[in-house]
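Internal tracking record. Fields below are filled automatically when a chain is submitted to the structure queue. Please do not edit lines marked as system-generated. If the sequence contains nonstandard residues, flag them in the REMARKS field before resubmitting.
Queue: standard
Priority: normal
Entity type: single polypeptide chain
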Amino acid sequence: MKKMKILLSALIFCIAMLSGGSFFAGINVDTARLQNDYPHWDLKNPASTVKLAMIDDFINKYKGNDYLSVFDWDGTLFCEHIPVKEMDNVEYAGQPAFYLWGAFNADKFTDFKLFPMFNTKNANFRKDVIQRTQSQESKLFDGMQNTAVPPTMPSTPYPVYNGDSYSKFTNTAIFTTGMTPAQLKQAQQEFFKEYDPTDFVFYPMLDVLQKMCDSGFNVWIITGSSQYFVGNALDYLQKNAVYKNGRNYNFSRILITPDGNYDASTSHIAGNGLKLLENGTFSAVYDDRFLSNDLINKAGLLYIIDKQGKFVAVNNIEAKGSKCAFVAGNTDGDLYDSSYVLQSSPLAPHTFVICVAPSPSSKILNYLQNYKNNSVILNMPEVFNK
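SYSTEM-GENERATED OUTPUT FOLLOWS
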């Protein structure tokens, strides 16, 4: 038995080296338990097993401490390449896919107007919704992309932000202006009938999210999408996606509402959404509740939930008492909070990062090479095999 354990350790070490990972000494790889806790992982893949063992080891070491654990949404938990049949199967992330679907399906709703601010007098609803979505997603014809140079801003206490990105992300939820959160949820339910979230979610990452929730972490989703949009998708998944043994996923530690409806005052989703008017409808005003503090307000800076803004949101959540131990992301938009948790968090170096299928040219991929004992890089087949 002792010889078998030594051979297994040697095998794991070799596999980790060959797969570009690193050997994390002291991990007890109990594949039966891993398969039970993370049922959607392919543990026939030795490299994936080593990565999952590292993730699970971190979770088990620090469970029950209410440590802040942050997940991105698009490209980390959910596919951001959804073929939109109304647009000849051009691929979009979930929220713009919903907007484009809505451009062709507004007549499904008779008791309220879908995207009411686009119901203009000249009746160009479909054209206007499509054009606005394409411009925000940089999918207009060549030569029409916005190439403005970011403005120069003070470098302290926070880094320079991109003015174009601010404009894009503050407008990402403008389609919902004039609607209520309940109407948005109803519209998404119709959208989900044709674009079922259970077909596009990254189940292995959803397993990790569930394990974090079950292990007493302070779990947050910090996303570039609208927090209401993501909240509705997450609620749909917990009602329709099976975790294990007939049990559905349960994200009550994230939504934190009795009815599963997103509530900005209690739910653990920070995104780029809109403030509500007194009558309960979405305004045209960006909701910066996750990005404001005395330092930022005094300096007159503006941020969105992306890049430096994710770092700001993490800092603001930490100010309430929970220190950040974990970040899961997929692009350079997650570099700032990832580097913070690995280098500057009060809990470092006892922290961890997951990066899902980063671009080969991304800065975050290069950065994480220096933290192989505190991070794993997952490839797309490991999280999404469709």
